[in-house]
């Protein structure tokens, strides 16, 4: 949770490139060097965000959204059990289908189930408006978000199910003995291969070329809001601050008790989001706008963390 929250803040931050930099004659070469140099340099930004959140909000701020994540994990585990456990009615029925059909179908269903949870978790860096809390299904209507999430899932699962099985064997090979064991089951041994592991890591790194920009786009689409939502959140924030409540309830003519010893609420961890005057309208609009306003490095934030997450996601894929 601390790493996830910090990664969201790093990707959601709006950092436009100055016009002087983009208009310079050596701008293209500078962009390429900055892109290569900054590909894995955002790990320091993630660590800094974790430290900043800990200093401002404490441990509670680091684990904001843990309840939502717990509900999400329980739902995913339950669905995986129903699909892959042959003892269940659904598992015995789906067991007749090809393996890749079951994995792909369950992954797409999980993606649709997870979308509201993912948006809520990513927006924990800010606040959800009351309308969004009352009607979470509205999060499916965030412009461009659903296509980006589905494309990301199809890309990662497609690469994992089709190409690695053809090009790279599993880095843990199963050697089966045709002779049944004492209890009637075959004896299997596991053998480790560094070559297969290297191929697995390289292939996941190549798949990150598409998955990483999609992750950054998904974060931007999930954290943006329209002008009405910004106004509602700002109004609720103002009314809920201790200073605003004290000023509202204080009698006329009362002295202003805001000296050095007055207690103030700790400053919120704010993410400098893109101005809401022209929100992203589609996934493609988000991609082109980020490239035009912030450069290619805006699509590579958190590459090291994303590669580690992709390796774990594929290694722990259900049914594998």
TrEMBL record:
The keyword Phosphoprotein does not apply. GO terms for cellular component: membrane. It is found in: Membrane. Keywords: Membrane, Transmembrane, Transmembrane helix. Residues 234-264 are annotated as: Disordered. It is a multi-pass membrane protein. It comes from the Eukaryota. SUPFAM superfamilies: Mitochondrial carrier (SSF103506). The keyword Lipid biosynthesis does not apply. Pfam families: Mito_carr. This is Uncharacterized protein. It comes from Malassezia brasiliensis.
């Amino acid at each position: 949770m601390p790493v996830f929250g910090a990664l969201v803040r790093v990707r959601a931050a709006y950092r436009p490139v100055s016009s002087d930099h983009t208009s310079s004659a050596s701008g293209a070469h500078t962009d390429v060097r900055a892109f290569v140099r900054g590909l894995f340099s955002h790990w320091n930004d993630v660590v800094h965000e974790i430290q900043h959140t800990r200093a401002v909000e404490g441990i509670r701020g680091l684990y904001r959204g843990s309840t939502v994540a717990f509900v999400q994990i329980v739902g995913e585990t339950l669905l995986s059990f129903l699909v892959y456990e042959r003892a269940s009615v659904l598992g015995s029925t789906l067991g007749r289908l090809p393996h890749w059909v079951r994995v792909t179908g369950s992954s797409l269903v999980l993606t649709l189930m997870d979308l509201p949870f993912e948006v809520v978790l990513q927006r924990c860096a800010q606040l959800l408006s009351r309308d969004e809390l009352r009607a979470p299904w509205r999060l499916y209507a965030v412009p461009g978000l659903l296509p980006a999430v589905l494309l990301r899932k199809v890309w990662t699962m497609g690469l994992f199910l089709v190409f690695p099985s053809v090009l790279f064997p599993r880095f843990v090979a199963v050697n089966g003995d045709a002779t049944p064991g004492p209890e009637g089951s075959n004896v299997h041994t596991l053998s480790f291969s560094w070559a297969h592991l290297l191929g697995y890591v390289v292939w996941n790194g190549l798949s990150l070329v598409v998955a990483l920009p999609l992750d950054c786009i998904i974060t931007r689409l999930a954290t943006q809001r329209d002008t009405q939502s910004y106004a509602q959140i700002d109004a609720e924030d103002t009314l809920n601050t201790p200073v605003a409540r004290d000023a509202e309830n204080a009698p006329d003519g009362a002295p202003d008790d805001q000296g050095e010893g007055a207690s103030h609420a700790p400053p919120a961890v704010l993410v400098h989001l893109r101005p809401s005057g022209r929100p992203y309208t589609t996934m493609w609009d988000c991609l082109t706008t980020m490239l035009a306003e912030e450069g290619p490095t805006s699509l590579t934030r958190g590459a090291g963390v994303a590669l580690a997450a992709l390796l774990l996601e594929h290694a722990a894929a259900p049914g594998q």
